[in-house]
Amino acid sequence: MSMKPMITRRTLLGTGAAAASLTLASPGLLHASTFPERNINVYVPTAEGGGADRNFRAFSSVWKGKLGTDFEPGFYPGASGRVGYEIYMGKADADCYNLIFGNMGPEVLNWAMQAPSFDVNDYFYFGQVDKDPCCLFVGAESPLKTMDDIIAAAKTRRLNVGTSRMAHPASIGLLALGDKLGIDFNLIPLQGGKGTVAGAVTGEVDFSVLTSGSVIAAGDSVKTLLVFGNNIVGEALDNAPSINDAYDMDLPEMLSARAFGIHKKAADDHPDRFEVLTSTFKETFDDPALMDAYIASKGQPEYLQYAGVEECEAFKQAMLEMGARYKSLLSGA
């Protein structure tokens, strides 16, 4: 004989009370199970169609499947990224539905050059998508064929060096090298990556410094002589050595590293939502579809590398410290 439970007003009240008790005991439980309930807004502090945009679209095309919602980017170029951060920090709600996607290296250096209107500790990066070490390179037809050639020439005259913008990790890598060797270089901003490559190729400058992904893309028109980080691509960068190995230095890696950031208040007030963001972000790296999307966006496969909150914060602080150290030499930023 089938025994069916009898539903009465008392059992309904009891069930409701138990559910209410569970919700009160774990107020984040319900929110965690329903987040996100709408699309995530992403503030990109550079122009649509650029490298950050391509990188963002590649990563989010896979991440959205893990998160169960889509991303809505907004582009806010201007003042080397400052405009986008000011708008994000000043106008976006701190509710985990608003993120910023930036290039940690050059954009954090902004705050070392000139303090923003907000406290730089009121936001942090929680998920690095890739890291691209900066490097030093010459044009294929340059008379300077080796680092020894550059050093010898620098002892006879002040060499002109192209950089995409003054406040850039590549610029700091060169200044640190100059400190080590007692050499004074003349940095010249050449309006972005393409101009910086062209400057070295045409001989407008003696050599250039830039993120290595752009240098790899330039192919045989350039030759890399030194990497301001770890050369994990070998021959693609002409097997150039790391600055630390070549000159017995202890320089932090000078990187172009794109990452998602968030208001500190959002993570503090909504830890359940933040956990959903971080866990699905990391899961995305385990999906083979991500590498396919990254390569399709012209990314260098070896540079697709995960980093979490602690690693991103360490890099942010390193950029702030190095920027403060060389601020006087980067005053043209």
Describe what this molecule looks like in 3D.
The chain is α/β, with parallel strands linked by helices and about 325 residues long. It has 2 domains: about 40-130 and about 255-330, 3-Layer(aba) Sandwich (D-Maltodextrin-Binding Protein, domain 2); about 135-245, Periplasmic binding protein-like II (D-Maltodextrin-Binding Protein, domain 2, 3-Layer(aba) Sandwich), CATH 3.40.190. The protein has helices spanning about 10-25, 25-35, 50-65, 80-90, 105-115, 145-155, 170-180, 190-200, 210-215, 245, 265-270, 270-285, 290-295, 310-325; strands spanning about 40-45, 70-75, 100-105, 125-140, 160-165, 185-190, 205-210, 220-225, 255-265, 305. Strands 1, 2, 3, 4, 5, 6, 7, 8, 9 and 10 form a 10-stranded mixed beta sheet that branches. The model is unreliable at about 1-30 (pLDDT under 50).
Salient structural properties:
14 helices, 20% strand, alpha/beta, D-Maltodextrin-Binding Protein, domain 2, 333 residues, 10 strands, 2 domains
Low-confidence stretches: 1-32
Largest sheet: 10 strands, mixed
Indicate the CATH architecture of the largest domain: 3-Layer(aba) Sandwich
The CATH superfamily of the largest domain appears as: Bordetella uptake gene, domain 1
Q: What would the CATH topology of the largest domain be?
A: D-Maltodextrin-Binding Protein, domain 2
- What is the first-to-last residue Cα distance? 84 Å
Radius of gyration from the alpha-carbon trace, in angstroms: 24 Å
Q: From the helix content, strand content and strand pairing, which structural class follows?
A: alpha/beta
Strand count:
10
**What share of residues are in beta strands?**
15-25%
Tally of domains: 2
Give average pLDDT, whole number: 91
* Broad shape: globular
Total of DSSP H or I helical runs spanning 4+ residues: 14
CATH class of the largest domain: Alpha Beta
N-to-C SSE string, H for helix and E for strand? HHEHEHEHEHEHEHEHEHEHHHEH
The percentage helix is 40-55%
